Hints:
This protein is α/β, with parallel strands linked by helices. It is built from six helices and five strands.
Amino acid sequence: MGEIIYVLVPGYGCFLTRELRWYLNEVRNFILEFRPQYVILSGGKSQKSAGDISEARVMFNYLTKDGPLCSGTKFVLEEKALTTLENISNAQLFIKQLATVDAKRVRLVVFCEASRQRKVHILTWLIMTKLGPLEMRPVAWERSQTLKQLVSTVLELAAFFFPPLRWGFHQLRLRRAERI
């Protein structure tokens, strides 16, 4: 039997910017070429100004605007995550529910914005250690400053090891979502 491909696509906002379209076009190209079994689009309602739409729904609408990408690929919308740690932790819960096969057959492909690659890679590795090979697919559009991402990585790693911080980050993101 062959490998089972899971693709994790964290969201980057509830508005379809030029950069987000470019990112999603890379995801679309991957789906068309490799035909993964599952694509997990992860991202909550991070911007009040976008109304009642999640990052996951924005990505799904864009990726399927011309109809299904390919038969056999199932989309899972994870619409609660507001942080990178939540994107990965919540996706892991879906994978646990969906993965009824030997972990050695699983290939996890994770897309992310390039300046966040280290953080996403470390957190994914920590959270999903029992899965098969991990493949990172960074897409560069330089949305974030390196120093800011370094600080964010340290803080989200601390939240991984100290769960009350996870709740605190979520609350901060909720307050930020109200402002933007």
